[in-house]
Amino acid sequence: MDTANAPVPESHDELIEQLRQYLSSITSTELGPDDDYFTLGLVSSLRALEIVTYIEGSHDVVVEVEDLDLDNFRTAARVAGFIRRKRGEQLRATDGASP
User: Fold this and answer.
1) In angstroms, rounded to a whole number, what is the distance separating the alpha carbons of residues 92 and 97?
2) Cβ proximity of 37 and 75 under 8 Å
């Protein structure tokens, strides 16, 4: 699935779904928004770098060295929260993520 040219999601749930689809495609596994693909053994360190590159290129954020905490990237929901924090967007409790 080519999500690199996908429209920028407007809601937090849309962002999670876009990320879930991307992560499912690169792992060849149907993932849920909270499935930890590292714990499941679906992502190697090389694939993790590919995910970071995708996030930077597709979501207009810069991932700094200090951002490279595995907890930011374990699930589609966590990646969505990370992207929104990097963009300076305020997360609401109804978004399913904490600020």
Assistant:
1) 7
2) yes
Other C-beta atoms lying within 10 Å of the C-beta of residue 10: 8
- Name the 3-class secondary structure at 71: helix
Residue 71 one-letter amino acid: D
Spatial CB neighbours of 89, under 8 Å, sequence gap ≥ 6: none
Cβ contact 56:92 at 8 Å:
no
Enter the DSSP assignment of 93: G
Looking at domain 14-96, its CATH class is: mainly alpha
Radius of gyration, alpha carbons of the chain? 12
Helix segments in the chain, DSSP class H: 12-27, 45-59, 76-86
pTM of the predicted structure, to 2 decimals: 0.81
pLDDT at residue number 1: 46
